[in-house]
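Consider the following input, taken from an annotated entry for Fe2OG dioxygenase domain-containing protein (Amborella trichopoda).
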Amino acid sequence: MPEFIELNCVDLSEPDLNKSVSLLKHACLDCGFFYLVNHGINLDFMDEVFSQSKKFFDLPVEEKMKVLRNEQHRGYTPMFDQTLDPDNQVGGDYKEGYLIDVEVPKDDPPAQRFFYGPNLWPSKDLLPRWRETMEKYHRECLDVARLVARLIALALNLEARFFDKPEMLGEAMVTLRLLRYEGKASNPEKGIYGAGAHSDWGFLTLLATDDVFGLQICRHKDAQPRVWEYVAPLRGAFVVNLGDMLERWSNCIFRSTLHRVVSNGQERYSIALFVGPSHNCLVECLSTCKSDSNPPKYPPVKCETYLRQRYMDTHADLSLYNHKTG
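Applying the prediction step yields:
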């Protein structure tokens, strides 16, 4: 069994708000990862979400391909569809996934934008409770993420509801991604990974995992050689990490940390909720995070522009699937 990094544990039921903010701030300054416990989502329900996720991935590949991801990045992502670390990977990530976002009807104007539109859903005949389960989990996780965002705001010396504004997380882009990692053992020396090294792109991520270890983080991404540390699974908890948008907002005070999945030869399931600012949000250095001696390190960037580029850089072109299935 490998050695695991010790992460701070933030308890949403803790009555001492200052204690929670202090623990969160220390984690955000140190490694950008922490556990979140007593978050209010029922453990039996989380088990049901994992059970429903496995039922989808157990379907024949031809059924899964009927809901292949579309141009709005909803639906099934096959094995090797994503390559998160192209400089060091061979053949893409050894994982398959399913993307679910905020539901936007096809005839609504926002549906014409990148990332927006109706979700894709598997057949009710095959998976009768699947959609309802995933939509409920999406809603409940977003509620948790908003509570964490308020702790983050306080840790950055902002008003607690600073990120609740419509142009920020009030109309957030929120992607639920179900993931199944194939039981092939990773081999970093040969460029084989469950998921290649990357930082998340949005504001924050809530990750639930099964009891199979595999997630690693690198606290010092500029160090050579990089040192990777395992994060232990913790039943019923979320592993929370910060994304690039928050690193830019905080002027690198809070860290969007490199992480990857190194599979140990066991099949592994995880479920991530990626929370990003609204489509039109202009992300620029916060007033509390800059000074004459510490000017902004990044220029302002529109959230949609940044996320779109990251998706295009790491995902296979959909025309490849059209060619194969046409």
